[in-house]
Amino acid sequence: MSASVENHDAGPPAAEQPAGQHSAGEHRDYIGAKLGMWIFIFTELILFGGLFVAYGMYRSMHPHEFHHAAGELNVVLGVINTLVLLTSSLTMVLSIVAIRLKRKTQSMIFLASTMVLGCVFLVNKFFEWKAKIHHGLYPGSEHLMARPPGERLFFGLYYGMTGLHGLHVTVGLVVMAIMLVLLRRDKIRHDDFIKLENAGLYWHLVDVIWIFLLPLFYLAA
Amino acid sequence: MSTAVASTAAPTASEPSFYAGSSRQGVLSWLLTTDHKRIALLYLGSMLTFFLVGMTIGVFMRLEHLTMGPTIMKPTTYNALFTLHGVIMIFLFVIPGLPAVFGNFLLPIMIGAKDVAFPRLNLLSWYLFMAGATIAITSLFTGGGPPDTGWSFYVPYSVTTGTNVTMAVLGAFVIGFSSILTGINFITTIHRLRAKGMNWMRMPLFPWALYATAWVQVLATPILGITLLLVVLERVFGLGIFNPAIGGDPILYQHLFWTYSHPAVYIMIIPAMGAISEIIPTFAHRTIFGYKAIVLSSMGIAGLGSLVWAHHMFTSGMSETSIIIFSLLTFLVAIPSAIKIFNWVATLYKGSIELKAPMLFALGFIFLFSIGGLTGLFQGALAVNMHIHDTYFIVGHFHYVMFGGTGMAFFAALHYWYPKMFGRMYKERTAVVAWVHIFVGFNMLYFTMLVLGMQGMPRRYYDHLPGFHLGHLVATVGSWILVAGLLLMIMNLVRGLFRKVEVPANPWGGVTLEWMVASPPPVENFDVLPVITEAPYTFNPVSEEKAK
Predict the structure, then answer these.
(1) Average pLDDT value for chain B
(2) Interface pTM (ipTM) of the complex?
(3) Domains in chain B and their CATH numbers?
(4) What is the DSSP string of B96-135?
(5) Cβ <8 Å between B34 and A3
(6) ω before A148 within 30° of 0 (cis)?
(7) A25: which chain B residues are within 8 Å (Cβ-Cβ)?
(8) Which residue of B has its CA nearest to A137?
(9) How many pairs of residues across A and B have Cβ atoms under 8 Å apart?
(10) Which domains are delineated in chain A?
(11) Quick check: B218 and A49 CB within 8 A?
């Protein structure tokens, strides 16, 4: 509504205020903003849902090959990454709590920690992928094509799903970087923190999806 | 609702219209606008352009069938053209058409709001739409040439073909994202910004239809997103999910594709039905018959329509049980559609019908959509489906639904809300002449296709056997009449913009909120937000008299 508010140079804003919830403070519709975010999160879940359907179908077709291929993944790294993400969700929540208590610096520190943890996750993921590719386990490789179809599909899904998840982590990091700037410029305040809260919701979504990826890939062995 | 809205009884003549009232000047006032009305017009301009391109391609395809053997093009060109025709018409016109243009323009006004819930997101949606369209169109001239897979991008061919499928698919992905954001915006707007007193059962039917559509957009489009993304990954990295050479299953692609693309048919048709539900009562000067039934059937179509996708795959290889279940569900979805048709017809009964151009298009919709819907039931029946699968019958059927249904409703809506959107008026007589041409040409073209299909003419062939020649000839001539009508209609609408005619706020005697504001509406739609005290479509004797 920013444009139309600007256009309202002539009108007396004081008279506008009592007209109702959708006059001056259009951006302050917290419930609306949250509703929009939640619907967006549904769409993200459905986006991953397509991949989960593919996983479910192929796993029921090749249970043993999936079981065998999952043994190739590094459970320790997977669990460490899970802990990293879970901790980052905690710091995200703490950042929101801090800004609600008017502790701006603390909120920024917590948000920055979330970003650091997100980066740690990506770095871990990078080394994991690098090791797999080093061992010739990537789509289309000779080594993988020599294996049975179920294992090829397992790794196809592994790269597809963790890759898409990684992309979401990256997007989350960009969003948080923007939030950090907004916090710094006092655009996110103790009485107006819906943007940070929505960013938090997105980050928890990334976290939740990972919680499903961990058992499906790493713990399936 | 005219009597209900005491505070806005007098149209706000003092406020400048949204064309004049902008803080920016020139092109930027359009490209950086967050006004839902301007964004709607951006969509309208871009979509009519895409429609003309898609229409031209369609004409060329018909010309190819004018004679047997190669007429004006090679078989490969024909393959590229039917792909393009499908992609442009479906992804760039029919799916986003009514919600993006009329939804954007009218939804906030009809529910008594000043704008949508997220105006900047709304502008972003338009940019994503244009970006997707640009990517899709660029795919024609780059890489391995225009895609030749058909709009459905079926694997494994779409993975193995050397044409530029990757880019076209990415374009569709981006457009899908735009569609999701529009859906989120509309749902939130309807939940949060309805005027005081407008409870759910006082909301007009077009917003209701948009609401049902938005849910389908939001819930189904991500599946298309992931499916298309997987095609890209398949082509670039060879993941193997859909590739039988690696172990994947192409049927899974078809399931995922139609899980979106069948509900997409309802994304196309529900808002069209919503627009018709606005037009019919206005020109019958009578309350809509069965308001609640229409509301429930919108939601019913949205729900049931999401469960019927596999009827596109009866010949692809599925278990007998699932075929029977999907066949049954397909028949069920006809019930809410029929409920709407009966309601519209019942609304006309004992109404004082005024056959203006929008009404003619609306009646055309009812007639053509009925044929489209009933021929759809043929395909839901298993035995018939086996016979007509992949024939011209399918082509005829979906043109009756998409063009005869959504297309006609789009034109009906365009003629109906034209004075509101532009504050101008087209020539009524020319509009009627154009409608006659469109209606006659349409039936000549597509009814012939239904017959050809029953005779066994397969779709997507660039040539035909002598036995089909007469049918193809009739269809091609029909396409000329149709195009003549369409061009006349568009010309009339464009010329109407320059006619200096004063248009009143309510030229048709409509009773929904958009007719209570000036034509064109002021920047913020309402000076004072309206308060709603009664159900929509309440035609009291006074307003009926005024209409005559």
Answers:
(1) 91
(2) 0.88
(3) 32-547 (1.20.210.10)
(4) THHIIIIIHHHHHHHTT-SS-S-HHHHHHHHHHHHHHHHH
(5) yes
(6) no
(7) none
(8) B239
(9) 140
(10) 27-218 (1.20.120.80)
(11) no
Widest distance between CA atoms in chain A: 75
Report CB contact under 8 Å: A139, B238: yes
**Rg over CA atoms, chain B:** 23
DSSP B17: B
**What residues in B contact A46, CB-CB < 8 Å?**
219, 222-223
B438 vs chain A: nearest CA distance in angstroms?
Answer: 39
Could you give the 3-state DSSP secondary structure of residue B458? Answer: strand
Average pLDDT of span B267-279: 96
Closest residue, chain B, to A150 (C-alpha): B247
Asked if the Cβ–Cβ distance from B226 to A2 is below 8 Å, we say: no
Local confidence band at B140 (pLDDT 50, 70, 90 cut-offs)? confident
Residue B135: CB atoms within 10 A of its CB come to 18
> Can you read off the two tokens belonging to residue A118?
């997100």
B506-519 pLDDT tens trace: 999 999 999 999 98
Tokens 């709009």, residue located: B151
CB B43 within 8 A of CB B96: yes
Question: In b/e form, how buried is each residue of B224-259, taking b as 16+ CB within 10 angstroms?
Answer: bbbbbbbbbbbbeebbbbbbeebbbbbbbbbbbbbb
User: What does the mean pLDDT of chain A come to?
Assistant: 87
Return d(Cα A150, Cα B482) in angstroms, integer: 53
Please compute the mean of the pLDDT values over residues B512-534 and round it to a whole number.
91
Question: Is residue B350 within a helix (H) or strand (E), and if so which, with residue range?
Answer: none
* CA gap B398, B51 in Å, rounded: 17
- Which pLDDT score, from 0 to 100, does residue A29 have? 86
Number of residues that make up chain A: 221
CA angle B77, B83, B85 (to 5 degrees): 100
Residue B97 in contact with residue B402, Cβ under 8 Å?
A: no
Question: How far is it, in rounded angstroms, from Cα A216 to Cα A210?
Answer: 10
User: Which pLDDT score, from 0 to 100, does residue B297 have?
Assistant: 94
Closest residue of chain B to A1, computed from CA coordinates? B119
* pLDDT confidence bin for A114, thresholds 50/70/90: very high
DSSP character string of B132-170: HHHHHHHHHHSTTSS--STTTT-TTHHHH--SSHHHHHH
Does the beta-carbon distance from B35 to A4 stay under 8 Å? yes
The residue type of A103 is R
